[in-house]
Amino acid sequence: MAKCLTKLLGKRPSSRLSELYITVQPHTFRRFLMRNVLGVGVTPDKKPEELKKPTLRFIQFLRGNDERKRLGVVSEDGNTFAELSGGACVSNDFLAFLKQGFSSQELLHKIDRVQCERMNDRLILLPPIINPGKIICVGLNYKGHCDEQNKQPPTDPVFFSKFGNALVGPLDCVVAHSVTKRLDWEVELAVVISRKCRHVQCKDAMNYVFGYTIAQDISARDWQKRNGGQFFIGKSMDTFCPIGPAVVHSSMIGDPHNLYLKCTINGEEKQSGNTREMIFRIDELISRLSSFLTLLPGDLILTGTPKGVGMYHKPPQYLKVGDVIQSEIQCVGKMINQVIAP
């Protein structure tokens, strides 16, 4: 987890939210956290008894200098959190936690029994899933993204993969590796699989979704076009898959096919769309994949991106060192990732 938002901090980068807050917002730390990472837009200036309780929004985090990974939940407004792995018979690792198979009602009961804390500046956010077995991506899954390339929408889903080394957290940095000169952005809704899934029909597929998070499918476009069109090098360089800030349980989302998503670079909006624009919906993607391979708890499916990627601007626009990428999806939250030199 090493580096975070050097340009904004003007010093050694860090994943500590308080250090990010110092220069990003002239308000309270909690207001920054709520509006820019975990929360959904509620005033933070409440009395303790009025603070919202944590709910089914799962985070992985560290406390200060303690290197022990922890699992917790946060409130919708981002003001409070509770550590589940501290005494609720819950694993401290999100992937192991999924395999424990708790129902949403069991989880809500456990949340009610653990101590609720105010969000504080000693919290260090990690990727909400640190070691997924698979990171499966879907290309050309928004009509607008097909149109900006002058391509017909595909008749079958276009699947490719990213590797686990690409994962970083919602406030971590993206490295502009020296081997690429065409670094691009793609905001995406990511699906988190809840349990073993094989030969599943569309009508049952959503029962295998635990929840959703944000993914930023960073791409080295020059390498994406080389090697005979093999995507994985251009998609899987270190830090090329920020995810977070939380995994939001499916019961908290409503309709995942009606969520606004957008991406801004240095405050300028580049992508704006809605998940209803997907060509292949989530149930069909899961059903198709499960007909070929076994999906397991914690597997990630990145469901595609709307129009507005840098490569297809006129002239093309690419990320450079110092740029700040903000990715946002309705009901899920936001990520802020800065591009840094190797």
From TrEMBL:
PANTHER family assigned: FUMARYLACETOACETATE HYDROLASE DOMAIN-CONTAINING PROTEIN 2A (PTHR42796:SF4), FUMARYLACETOACETATE HYDROLASE DOMAIN-CONTAINING PROTEIN 2A-RELATED (PTHR42796)
SUPFAM superfamilies documented for this protein: FAH
Originating gene: LOC119635068
One family name in Pfam for this protein: FAA_hydrolase
Signal peptide range: none
Record keyword Hydrolase present: yes
Sorted UniProt keywords: Hydrolase, Metal-binding
GO biological process: oxaloacetate metabolic process
Listed InterPro entries: FAH (IPR051121), Fumarylacetoacetase-like_C (IPR011234), Fumarylacetoacetase_C_sf (IPR036663)
GO terms for MF: hydrolase activity; metal ion binding; oxaloacetate tautomerase activity
Family: Belongs to the FAH family.
Biological source species: Glossina fuscipes
Protein name: Fumarylacetoacetate hydrolase domain-containing protein 2
Fumarylacetoacetase-like C-terminal domain residues: 134-339
